[in-house]
Amino acid sequence: MAELIRLDNISKSYGDNEVLDELTLTVEENQFVTLLGPSGCGKTTTLRIIGGFEKPDQGRVYFDGKDITDLPPNMRPLNTVFQNYALFPHMTVGENIAFGLKVSGKSDQYIKDKVKYALKLVNLKGFENRKITQLSGGQQQRIAMARAIVNEPKVLLLDEPLGALDLKLRQEMQYELVRLKKELGITFIYVTHDQEEALTMSDKVVVMNDGYIQQEGTPEQIYNEPENAFVADFIGDSNIIPGRMVEDRLVEIKGVKFPCIDGTENGFRPGQRVDVVIRPEDIEIRPYGEGLFNGTITSKLFIGVHYEMLVKQEGGKFEWLLQNYDEHQVGSEIGMYVRPENIQIMHKPQSDDEKRMNLEI
Amino acid sequence: MKKTISTLYIALVMLFLYLPIAALIVLSFNESKSMANFSGFSLQWYEELFRSRMLMQAVGNTFSIAIISSVAATVIGTLAVLGLSNMKKKSQDIILAANNIPMLNADIVTGLSLMLCFIMLRLPLGYGTILFAHITFSIPYVVLSVRPRLNRNTDRLFEAALDLGASRGYAFRKIVLPELKPGILSGFLLAFTMSVDDFIITYFNKGEGINTISTIIYSQVKVGIRPSLFALSTIIFVVAFAALIVVNRNSDRNEVAFNL
Amino acid sequence: MASRKWASPFIIWIIAGTVIPILSIFYYGFTTRDGGFTFDNVTAVFTHDHMQALGLSLGLAFASTIVCLIIAFPMAMILRDSKFGKEGFMIFVFILPMWMNFLLRTMAWQVLLERAGVINSILAIFGLPPQQLMNTPGAIILGMVYDFLPFMILPIYNTVCKIDSNLIEAAYDLGASKMTVYARVIIPLTVPGIVSGITMVFIPALTTFVISNMLGGGKINLIGNIIEQEFTVNSNWYLGSGLSLVMMIFIIASMLILNKFDKTGGQALI
Predict the structure, then answer these.
(1) Between chain C and chain A, are at least 3 CB pairs below 8 A?
(2) Nearest chain B residue (CA) to A146
(3) Is there a contact between B165 and A72 if contact means CB atoms under 8 Å apart?
(4) A3-224: in CATH 3.30.70.120
């Protein structure tokens, strides 16, 4: 796939507050890329720099090989779906959607057809003459989409577009967005703080924190092989525990030795201190004494599909987070086992920036 | 029971507010000059009002000053709000504090301080100085009603228009101005009513030989009220009544009226 | 969106129309006729006549503010509960007199209170002797209340309307009596409106010279009348400016005190 957008060494500060620090990112044609991170991580600023609403202090933005850093937003071949939609309140739905086409001087007939087509695409046929204030949140969201895509941009920028919707609508709209992207065949750059949204829809997820890219990769890579404790913690519930390599393919955590699949060949020397991620669904429950270690269940919560449990490790204070489809009673003593391939070993953070990630390590 | 008391209370306050006005209206149709007895229906005081060049000139001055000063204040104030939005928070705060002075200060001090300056600069007091003074005290009201309309939401709508390919000028005209319009309109109306209603500031800055409705009432009160003033009151009341109905019809849930 | 330059006419106007004039009041207030520095114009307030006028101004302004508050608060509460208020009709009724010229409104009371005026002629019908109504402090308080009452009702009504009914219901639900609900919930939440109402009544009442002139027949001197006369009759700008400064101190002081009660910064009006 061809490279479409490249951010090269971008830095941006507001006063003393450095929002982006030498960020470099490539977006390929027809990709669904999600910028994921907590608020203040720099994801929205990155999007605004691509859209042309902010000028980077340093670095260049390339589109299709051309430098567009100094191009104003109205000259850029991309459109944005804004957070809270930014629909023009004094115009009808039809006038909102037609705005971009009118500005570019299209004929009335063309505009009329195009508005009709766009409304059909977002499943709001016949809404042309409605007032913006008469629409529900979900409908406003669709109109914002229609208003952007009617201009046939090569790239659609979406800034937390589902943030204001309730859970059920949000899930529905996730399918809609994926369908729209398929139908339009264009590139989506999507900003969110919701990890589930990111994992569901994206081809590529870019996890950001403190103005740095922490990890980029497919949703599977991000979930299964987090590169550091921040990513592991941000993506899903996890047990993130400090440990020590005993030898190749053997790591010691909380006094228990776990067989694993990492070793010297991917940079983990014996004796080295590491962080270990074990997903709660990867801890298997065995009868007492038959696992790698034992513990007592201290609490249990039914959360829909499965049970979530806290298990206090025998002879220690540490509590493990477990998820299991079977119900086990609070107070019962169990054995626990983790397959070697489910143990994700990560390097300890080293730079100052990574230390600031506020994790209990 | 509770409802009766409430209704009675409203009625009493209404009576208090409208009894004096009603008295003026009734007396404006009185045949005699008496302020106590209604001796018969007559329109002679209306005739006297329309024949009096002095009164008619005062009415003309009042409204021409109100129109010119409120238009000027609206333009200056609206531009100010837009310009201020690009300044640092600290400079904004300082400028807005100065902007609040004429609103919070006593009218007598505002009027006298302007008069002092005009006399120091040897500017003859007259129509021009009244106009300058009215623009000065009207601008803060315009700034105060337009400023809340310009917020992060307006910024986002402006950006959205740019994003859709509009030039900055087009986005400003088509998106930002319509957003500011209710604020501009209520600022203008406030400035206009403040100007029409003003006496104190006009009084100190008018000089000899020029009068507005307010100053002519004040001078007549000293030498003796003529019933032609009652006729003028009646007309003003009817016009205000009609104007308020129009304004309230045109604004959503009397937004403008609440801002008074 | 806009250039900073757009504010320049405004900034020039503020400097020319507000800042420099206020500074010239300060200049004259601290200067003698031959140009020397002095405090005499300011300390002149302590002379007997000036103190009496200032005291009377404070007293009348205070009294009329209290009367306005007593009339306005129940009015705002009634309007909140009645369907009239929501239709905007009652608000219309309160704004309409404000659109009448303020001197005409004051003149109307003169017509009513005059020795040969409406009230005395009504008294005469019942065979009662005519009363001296004009030129009394009572007449001035009446004029102040009449002129400024809408400025008290509207801000209080605005804040009262913004009180969430759930809060009042929650208070009743928690066992509060009607008294407690007013004292602990409604009145505290109405403070911003009360504060801007008081500001909008007290300051013009304190500084007026018009109402006292029209309803006091020139016999009652408030601090505003004294300042006006220094400028227009005695042509003593120095003394007039000095007394204006004293008046401004009272304005600033009353606003500081009022702002202590209002933590929202006086946003009730807009």
Answers:
(1) no
(2) B164
(3) no
(4) no
